[in-house]
Amino acid sequence: MPTIDPYAAEIVARRAPYDFVGDRTAPCSRCHDDTLQEGFKTFSSPYVGFSLPFARRPSTAGKIGKTVILWACTRCESVVSVN
Ligand SMILES: [Zn+2]
Fold it and tell me: How many Å apart are CA 66 and CA 33, to the nearest integer?
């Protein structure tokens, strides 16, 4: 089970389905450190990953409907990367 609630942390849009992928240790740009991160697989939408500063760019529109994995830092609960 993930330690992050992806709905409460606003990583995944409310009511959007997701799968917990697992965890990894990787650098977090906000914490400036290697942190434990958890991956959530969901469908890309205008609302997915909206805590990302670049999520509102028009280029994300082309990804709508695709499956993405959002990696979230368990320390600061921000999305650190999207695969
Ligand atoms: Zn962090």
Answer: 30
Contact 60, 50 (CB under 8 A): no
Quote the ligand 1 centre to 32 CA distance (angstroms).
Answer: 7
| Chain segment 27-77, per-residue pLDDT in tens | 999 999 999 999 999 877 655 545 455 454 444 444 556 788 999 999 999
Gap from CA of 54 to ligand 1 centroid (Å): 17
CA of 79 to the centre of ligand 1 (A): 8
CA 39–ligand 1 middle distance (angstroms): 13
46-to-16, 27, 33, 36, 60 alpha-carbon distances in Å: 12, 26, 29, 26, 8
